[in-house]
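BUG: 3D viewer hangs when loading the predicted structure for this chain

Environment: internal workstation, default settings.
Expected: structure renders.
Actual: progress bar stalls at 90%.

Input used:
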Amino acid sequence: MKETVAILGLGYVGLPLAELLVKRGKYHVLGIDIAKPAVARAKKTIRSNKFSASPNFTAIAQADIAVVCVPTPVKRNFMPDYGPLKKACESIAQYAQKGTLVIIESTINPGTCEEVVIPIFQKYGLECGRDYQLAHCPERIDPGNTKWTLHNIPRNVAGCDAKSGKRAAQFYRSFLSGKVKLLKTLKAAEATKIVENTFRDINIAYVNELAMSFDKLGIDLVEVIEGAASKPFAFMPHYPGCGVGGHCIPVDPYYLIERAKYTGFHHPFLRMARAVNNGMPAYTVGLLKKQIKDAGLKRPTIGLLGLTYKKDIADQRESPAVKILQLLKMARFKTITFDPYLPTESSATSLQDALSTSDAIIIATNHSAFQKISARLLKQNDIRVVIDGRNMLNKEAIERAGILYKGIGR
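Structure tokens produced before the viewer hung:
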């Protein structure tokens, strides 16, 4: 008899998980989300008699396994908002059958399962390992990545006890082709996601700081990084840019920074990395102002190309382009925006429309559509200044065309 899996939260984590489980055909899947549009989207996306979706939490009573994929947004004080997580756990505690395996996939602080999740179940008289099983398997999704996808990316998992961890590992191994590593403690599993993204944030901050330094030294940082990357060990290339976006890298370090305060520890290194990366949109606009002055432009129109945080996706969460746009407006620049993945957010109808009405451009996202921006195209549209926030254009060709070019660190 097939087990039934309830997935709480049908967003960018829960919906792909539901799709994969249904595709594998080993489980009946119940999608639960309080947002009716999310439920409607799930029903439209997954058309199978092995799947149903509802905003009703009572469906949890049918589940053998409940996977929590609700968001944990960051508050203004940089602490995660566990409201959705708490509501999901409250619902599971009220309706779940005895022996249900509860898996938290939401991104959480080290210690959250023990300090937030387990106490909710205890309030209902339920003990972990006796009345239900609990595990944490932090989500790993890289939007737009076609090589590493949900089915083949390795995962980490741990349980409140050995049986919970083993059962959760068996569950993921039943439908994933990627390696599933069973860790010893919930805290260790919780910490992996934070450490992974903080590692990236630190290394990006390192090259962003080098970009600002090498700009003054007259050194092309991209050339340096590519040279350093020829070393076959002990170096991992990261590249500078106009800012860091998405729900993970600019957010997860704060989980650790703020959580550590409660133990009396402070993370000055992590805070410094956040400050450097948070400052890159302002640095980019600063480059623009200098180049405009050097070009002798008076009251130019700026074309901001790219509004999403990442190449070839429609996700605008924490996008540095949003901050750049705000800074341009504060500086009273007339600004034209264009993003092929966010047409309703764009003021220009096409790339050509944006170029033809701009005197200077900032590339904030390295969309594939922007790769066709050549020196010839820029010259045809009388673009005088290019700020390449993603270092994706041909610097030498643009400069030969008599256009002022400035990348991040080159």
